[in-house]
Amino acid sequence: MKFKKRTFFITVLLTLLLSTSVIAGALNSTSKQLEVPIQKLSVSLISDVVYSQPSIFGYPNYPLKMDILKPNSKDLLPAVVFITGGGFMAANKDNYLQQRMDISEAGYVVTSIEYRVTPQSTFPAPLEDVKSAIRYLRANSAKYGIDPNQIAVMGSSAGGYLAALAGTTNNIKEYDKGDFLDVSSKVNAVIDLYGLSDLTKVGEGYSKEVQEIHKSPSAPEAMWVNGAAVFGPGGSILDHPDKAAKSNPITYVTNDDPPFLLMHGDQDTLVSPNQTQILHEALINKGVDSTRYVVKGAGHGGDVWAQPKIVNLIIDFLDSHLKGKENK
Known about the structure:
This protein is of the alpha/beta class and 328 residues long.
């Protein structure tokens, strides 16, 4: 027993001596010491999480997936649901990666979701998907380190439109379909980047030729609401005004909507800056906290939207409305 103890102490002593030698070698006269302050959190990726299985044309149970960027923190963090654009016809959750990483490094669990698109589906199916994603995260908040009381929604183009819809329909149960229906789909803040607000006026502010294109039954917004003629009633966005109105974020604006941040490029040739202006004015008129920026020289997407000045504005907005706030 004494021999074993003596061997143990010798081993420990040798380990300490070797460690000291290694440290001394690391800090010898030819090396430089580097101090690294912790300014951002490291982030892990959880990919292809199935959050809902709705029906879609030809599939009774179609798996919709999300990617989750999760900061490595012991604290519960606010969450941001990012909704990609895609002209109502695609929903690639890989988009906007740089910005999502920046936001996550600032202390947010950031998800990016797929959703149903046209012509396989029509409104309100995509909005139902967004709300399903929010409920899924809230129901699984402990698993992903999320503060269930602080969830924001953010999107670009068609995703900005869906983000605005999620915010303006906060208290409308009609669009809650699927799983976790005992959990709220409420959001606490909305970021709308060059999204649409009134689908009947997408061409407004452009040439007559462009406006005529948007009156076509094959325009994306027409199929989004009315479906392709092969699968549904078809028709232009103006042919079914009641359905069009029901699909517009401006229809649902009330004084209890969450705070909004809207941004639009003044050189956008796909979605007129008028679209976010319409929503901004509607929100302001109802007393909602809404801030809108017109970004000089910016188009519909592109490098401008990845710049720190833009992303920092988004993070500041999120910090002011989600961090350290009690649930309202």
